[in-house]
Specification:
Distance between the termini: 25 Å
Strand order of the largest sheet: 1-2
Structural class: mainly alpha
Organism: Kibdelosporangium banguiense
Shape: elongated
Strand content: 5-15%
Radius of gyration: 18 Å
Protein name: HK97 gp10 family phage protein
Number of domains: 1
């Protein structure tokens, strides 16, 4: 019984490590993908992008945020005109378009950790 519990504990830790790595990497990718679309005039909005992680509890949560006073307005205002293919919905659009890729990356990181890292 002790062997089973040890193996199970190792597997749980590997899944957690893989999940944390996968979520962090997916958030970094979303940040980069969104920065390709974020309205860009002086670069303040793009430079304000940040990834944060919450791994304190049993869940693993990651977030990409833009920290300027006008970030939410730029994200939601579809009637604003932007240069060079930049657009509103610069976070939501890439998240929806690439969600399968992000999930595959997370799954791959979990698999890698389960295989021994």
């Amino acid at each position: 019984m002790d062997d089973f519990e040890a193996v199970l504990g190792d597997a749980e830790r590997a899944v957690r490590r893989g999940t944390v790595k996968g979520v962090r990497g997916s958030c970094q990718s979303l940040k980069s993908d969104s920065q390709d679309l974020v309205p860009y005039q002086e670069g303040d909005l793009s430079r304000s992008a940040a990834v944060s992680m919450d791994t304190a509890g049993t869940e693993v949560q990651g977030a990409v945020t833009y920290d300027t006073k006008y970030a939410a307005i730029q994200h939601e205002a579809e009637d604003f005109r932007h240069q060079d293919g930049r657009t509103a919905n610069y976070l939501g659009g890439p998240l929806r378009a690439n969600s399968d890729r992000y999930l595959e990356y997370i799954n791959g990181q979990v698999a890698t950790e389960l295989e021994g890292g």
